[in-house]
Amino acid sequence: MNGGCQAGREHMMYNLELLREYTPVASTLVVGNVLFPRLLPWEVNACHKEIRKAHERLKADTDQYVSELLHQTAYHNNTLGNALLANEGRALEHFTGDNIREYMMKHFSAERSVFVGINVDHDELCKWLMRSFAEYVAIPNLPREEPKPIYTGGYKLEENADMPVCNIAIGFETEGWNSADLVPVTVLQTLLSGGGSFSTGGPGKGMHSRLYLNVLNQNPNVESCMAFNTQYSDSGLFGMYITGYGQEAPRLVDIALNELHKL
């Protein structure tokens, strides 16, 4: 059995991978950890070290780190711009069992959750889920603020002398999942597509997309170039992510903006 928990900017997901006959155990484990966690002090304190490791992994994953910086810059100090990981220092002081439980009481409830099973009988899954919730006493959802994201824009620059490659992300605000422009923006991303400068090719690789033809095939100094389209409930980011050698940074920006101006 493998399990984990992933946090996004608008959701949290618990997942388990196991043999089908262990479905009764899986449903109880997931529901118990979501609605009835014990949050023992020694467990919470042990997580402080894991958070520091998570920060190290984030900075080691350049693509993910650039995406995190892009969000923090686009929505500076609000909603979607808040860091996914607790900042080292003062934030870790508030990483306590009581605070975590208060957060879960405010946001976690059966009405705000979905349960999905893959390659498992629907009726069997529902049966064990009903049993897992048998002792659950519903607590009225507490009122909570749902502030709208405020797009601030701006720029963020970080220098690392140990990295020969320059990574640049240029993003623009979109209106989110419920926008009438969702489909056109998605089509634009597909039209631009992109990838790395070295690829084995083959059907479906996007070798004839605009960024492959106009950027990667024409500019040997570009290591990779791709369009991105990240959507949330009431805002989003569309733009371009381009990488190349550090001394080419101004040229990389010009190349990316030139392709965006052609749209």
TrEMBL record:
Domain Peptidase M16 N-terminal residues, every copy: 5-86
One Gene Ontology CC term in the entry: mitochondrion
Domain of life, per lineage: Eukaryota
GO molecular function, one term: metal ion binding
Pfam families referenced in this protein's UniProt entry, alphabetically: Peptidase_M16, Peptidase_M16_C
InterPro entries assigned: Metalloenz_LuxS/M16, MPP/UQCRC_Complex, Pept_M16_N, Peptidase_M16_C
Domain Peptidase M16 C-terminal, residue spans: 95-263
Matching PANTHER family: METALLOPROTEASE, MITOCHONDRIAL-PROCESSING PEPTIDASE SUBUNIT ALPHA
Family, per entry: Belongs to the peptidase M16 family.
Its biological purpose: Substrate recognition and binding subunit of the essential mitochondrial processing protease (MPP), which cleaves the mitochondrial sequence off newly imported precursors proteins.
Entry protein name: Mitochondrial-processing peptidase subunit alpha
Organism: Perkinsus olseni (Perkinsus atlanticus)
